[in-house]
Each structure stands twice: as C-alpha cells, then as structure tokens.
Specification:
Helix 3 crosses helix 4. The mean pLDDT is about 85. The N and C termini lie far apart (about 75 Å). Strand 2 and strand 3 form a beta hairpin. Strands 1, 2, 3, 4, 5 and 6 form a six-stranded mixed beta sheet that branches. The chain is about 25% helix and about 25% strand. It is α+β, with helices and mostly antiparallel strands and about 170 residues long. It contains five helices and six strands; from the N terminus they run αββββββαααα.
Length: about 170
C-alpha cells in the first residue's frame, strides 16, 4: 500500500477518486517513444445527470484515456486512466467521470500545462519547450493563449483617434 501512496504522491495526484490498479509500472512504445505506463481508475457516484438533473443514473462501462504527465528521472510517464462512464435512465444520455487532474476532453495533465507556462519565463523557443515536455509546438501555443487570454488585445476595441491618409480617403 505504501508503494501506491508513493506513486500517487510522486505524480501529484490529489484527486481521491483516482486509484492505481497495479503495483507494477510497465514500459511500452506509445506514439514513437517509450513511456512508463501507470494504470489507474477514476470512479465515483454522481449526484445527478448533467443534462436533465435526474438522479436515476447507472454505471455504464469505462473509457480509457492516456494522459501525459511530467517527466520523472528522464522517463516519460503516461497515466492510463480508466474513466467511469455513466448512463442516465431518464434522458438516455451518457457522460464520463471528470477530475481536476486533467481537463475534460484533454490528454495532457494540468501539471504539464502549468510547467509549460513556468518555462515561458526563460528565453526558450516554443519548439524547445515542446520537446522538453513531449508535446507539439502547437500545443504549447494553445496553452500560452489559454493562460494569457486576458492579456491579448481585444478584437472589438477601437482607439480614440483614427488616422487616415488623405489619398486613401479620396480613392474611396
């Protein structure tokens, strides 16, 4: 039990609904690079359906997600998370268990996103940051835009004074 607690602590998993399935960590080739695979399961009992707010919910299988984590001792860890699926008996819609460890419909942990934003303090290119965290440079660009969205100039703002060239106005 202490090994499982140590692995959870090392990976910085604070969600109590995530539990490790196996004590062993396997090595697999995933998308061209070797990763240390850690198997875990995310399950809980939901209070209500997010679509119709009904309480008539049953467990409906699992969806497996491969979540990239921060490097540990120069290895690329990968959390193979079995997320519990639920089915609402009233509206017949299904939904998946969610966690704060990773955003909905995302396969990159929030710790990597935070580490990428901290790397921006250094004078490093986006490609170098992407290769350090084993993500694409487009992913780094999306993370930058999502974290600094409030600092981007507004597209719907006009300055107080507009300067036009007289020749431009005559040609219109």
């Amino acid at each position: 039990m202490s090994q499982i607690h140590s692995i959870i602590n090392l990976l910085n998993i604070e969600d109590k609904n995530i539990s490790l399935l196996q004590d062993e960590v396997t090595t697999e080739l995933f998308k061209g690079t070797y990763h240390k695979i850690i198997h875990a399961k995310l399950t809980y009992s939901p209070h209500e359906c997010p679509h119709c707010q009904s309480k008539n919910i049953i467990k409906w299988g699992y969806k497996i997600s491969n979540i990239k984590l921060l490097k540990i001792a120069a290895f690329n860890p990968l959390l193979r998370l079995k997320k519990q699926r639920f089915l609402c008996k009233n509206c017949s819609k299904s939904f998946i268990a969610e966690t704060t460890f990773v955003n909905k419909f995302c396969c990159i942990s929030n710790d990597i996103k935070l580490a990428i934003t901290l790397e921006l303090q250094k004078n490093i290119s986006e490609k170098d940051i992407a290769s350090n965290f084993n993500v694409s440079s487009n992913t780094v660009n999306r993370i930058i835009n999502s974290f600094f969205k409030e600092h981007l100039p507004s597209k719907y703002f006009l300055p107080e004074a507009l300067c036009f060239d007289e020749n431009f106005i005559k040609n219109i």
